[in-house]
Design goal:
- The protein is mainly beta.
- It has helices spanning about 50, 90-95, 120-125, 190-195; strands at about 25-35, 40-45, 60-65, 65-80, 80-85, 100-105, 125-130, 135-145, 150-155, 160-165, 170-175, 180-185.
- A six-stranded antiparallel beta sheet has the order 3-4-5-2-1-6.
- A hairpin with a 2-residue loop joins strand 4 (about 65-80) and strand 5 (about 80-85).
- The longest helix has 4 residues, at about 50.
Length: about 200
């Protein structure tokens, strides 16, 4: 009986010269194994799981000597989560070494979004300024998605407080992710009311 395969045994482009892990985009994490044939369950961080996790596609993981590609051999969505097979991982024992691994893709492979939609990673670090008096509110530290509305979590300039700002057109009147600026026109009292 041969030793179980581990992630560091996978042939691939294990090279940080090909892909800079820090510059890649997180699309999910392998939660656990599924079944006996080496499939894994993905906790997806993408709005496009059917397109991102498809047979023949590649996802990337960090390994001891850099970054390596994992080729998806099978994929399906079950209870809202992708279940995928990975080339070279044929048993539950093989797949156990994948549990907990973060999955990323090169930035160039991200899907284009319709106007008015933004990737979370593009909003992080944006400076938030008010429209009327051009006052710096703070820096976007996170984006929460709940109840069908996204909210910017903004670390207040010169303080430790965070402010929730709904990411809706009437309030976030200008979003320039290239310039890393979000201009807001909040209703009176919103910034004080939504301070954490």
């Amino acid at each position: 009986m041969s030793a179980p395969l581990t992630i560091d045994d996978v042939p691939g482009d294990a090279s940080s010269e090909c892909h800079d892990w820090r510059a890649m985009i997180a699309i999910g994490r392998i939660a656990r194994t599924h079944g006996r044939r080496g499939e894994v369950v993905i906790d997806s961080d993408t709005d496009f799981p059917e397109r991102r996790f498809r047979p023949g596609g590649d996802v990337y993981v960090a390994v001891a000597n850099g970054v390596t590609a994992l080729r998806i051999t099978s994929a399906r969505i079950q209870r809202g989560r992708p279940i995928v097979g990975i080339a070279g991982f044929e048993s539950i024992t093989d797949a156990q070494s994948l549990a907990g691994k973060e999955l990323r893709i090169p930035r160039a492979e991200q899907q284009s979004l319709p106007g008015g939609s933004y990737y979370t990673h593009a909003l992080l670090g944006c400076e938030v300024r008010t429209r009327d008096d051009d006052v710096v509110v703070g820096i976007v530290t996170d984006v929460e998605h709940a109840g069908g509305i996204s909210r910017l979590l903004v670390r207040q300039a010169g303080g430790d407080d965070e402010i929730d700002i709904p990411l809706v057109d009437p309030i976030c009147v200008q979003v320039d992710t290239a310039a890393k600026v979000v201009v807001v026109d909040p209703p009176e009292g919103l910034l004080e009311l939504n301070r954490r």
